Amino acid sequence: MEILKALFGDRADLYEQALGLAARRQQALTANLANVNTPGYQRRDVDFRVALEDAESAPLRARAPEASRIARASSFRRTSPRHIDLGAVPRAALKASGANAVETEGGDVNMEQEVTALAETQLQHDAVAMMARRYFQGLKSVIREGR
After folding, report:
1. Which of 144, 94, 132 has the alpha carbon at shortest distance from 18?
2. How far is residue 21's CA from residue 49's CA, in Å, rounded to a whole number?
3. Closest to 87 (Cα-Cα) out of 103, 69, 75
């Protein structure tokens, strides 16, 4: 791992964590939509910006035990070494909504809000994926062409 870190720096870790956070938020938002008519259901969300700032400021090794616990609790499983390791994703606690949420059928999930948040999360994921792709294309170009 130290060799990879020496070659790619922290940027690759940051991309991996950002993509994992987007996946975790997507999971929370789809659960909200699935429970839109469930009485008493509390809306859950992952604050992408706060979790990403946490990822940038704290060393990965210090977060590993908590992140691994969260990854085990989620339905995501790493089935190939080429997949994103959600154990490396920073602790992004799911937050339940507060009293200011809109009541719908006994729960506090607003379908329009959830669909908007899903679209926002997709855009965030796509932006990070594009940045990662460009970063690795640049590395590939340097390796192949020496520029």
Report:
1. 132
2. 10
3. 69
Domain boundaries, the chain: 2-145
* Tens digit of each residue's pLDDT (9 = 90 or more) over 64-107: 444 444 444 445 566 777 665 655 545 555 566 654 444 545 67
- How many helices (H) does the chain have, and how many strands (E)? 4, 2
Residue listed under structure tokens 């990403």: 52
The predicted model scores a pTM of: 0.63
For residue 131, the model assigns a pLDDT of: 95
**87 and 76 in contact (C-beta within 8 Å)?**
no
Q: In the chain, what is the greatest distance between 2 CA atoms, to the nearest angstrom?
A: 62
The two structure tokens encoding residue 34: 């699935």
24, 47 in Cβ contact below 8 A? no
The three-class DSSP label of residue 96 is strand
| Cα gap 37→112, rounded to integer Å | 14
Q: DSSP per residue over 7-66, as a string?
A: HHHHHHHHHHHHHHHHHHHHHHHHHHHHTTT-TTPPPEE--HHHHHHHHHHS-HHHHHHH
pLDDT confidence of residue 9: 74
Element containing residue 71 per DSSP (H, E): helix 60-73
